[in-house]
Inverse folding.
């Protein structure tokens, strides 16, 4: 009995040591959620994993530092999160959740960039581009999160997701919305209470637009939270 227990412990110890000294044979990269565009590829992920730490494929299972790999890969602006695990067959598995772009910002000065679904700034990618709404103007970092939530609210509405094609930053905190049809624009005002403002806009379209049309109007204003104000176009000095 004692001999059997000792033998079992010996076998377990031997197996553990053998697995720990097993060389890494493969790095597997998997993107765990579907997105419209991936701005980073498998090869770049592997290069990040190997950065400043030597070639992982020249290490053993026990030598691989999982937390170090996760930290290096997560530093990419295109990566939302990463989980790394080791398999006894000698493989390193990286599960990647990629960032999703919801808007492209064209600033007054400087390079264009994306805003992610979590309201973070993300650079343009050489690998892929996203067909997302354009925001142009002097957008401040403290507006990224609210702007991201606003754009996602637009995308969730069947009427507005195709009707609003661009967003213009005007003044210090205000925004205008550019429409795909009609010679008018929508004055949003600030991003405060944007859900209420968008709801007012949808109600206005559903209840009034078929009766009054938009040809005679220069803008629709949502800046006052509880109402939609329609401003007629000036014709021959008269509205």
């Amino acid at each position: 009995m004692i001999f059997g227990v000792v033998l079992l412990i010996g076998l377990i110890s031997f197996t553990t040591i053998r697995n720990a000294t097993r060389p890494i044979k493969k790095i597997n990269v998997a993107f765990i959620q579907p997105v419209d565009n991936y701005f980073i590829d498998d090869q770049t992920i592997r290069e990040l994993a190997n950065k400043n730490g030597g070639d992982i494929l020249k290490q053993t299972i026990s030598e691989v530092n999982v937390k170090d790999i996760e930290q290096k890969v997560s530093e990419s602006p295109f990566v939302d999160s990463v989980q790394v695990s080791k398999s006894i067959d000698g493989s390193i598995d990286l599960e990647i959740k990629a960032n999703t772009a919801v808007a492209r910002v064209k600033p007054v000065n400087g390079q264009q960039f994306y805003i992610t679904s979590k309201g973070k700034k993300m650079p343009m990618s050489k690998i892929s581009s996203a067909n997302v709404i354009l925001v142009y103007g002097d957008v401040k970092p403290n507006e990224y999160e609210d702007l991201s939530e606003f754009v996602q609210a637009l995308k969730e509405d069947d009427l507005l997701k195709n009707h609003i094609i661009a967003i213009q930053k005007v003044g210090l905190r205000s925004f205008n919305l550019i429409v795909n049809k009609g010679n008018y624009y929508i004055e949003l005002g600030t991003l405060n209470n944007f859900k209420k403002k968008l709801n007012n806009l949808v109600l206005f379209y559903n209840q009034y637009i078929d009766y009054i049309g938009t040809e005679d109007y220069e803008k629709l204003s949502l800046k006052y939270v509880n109402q939609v104000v329609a401003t007629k176009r000036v014709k021959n000095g008269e509205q």
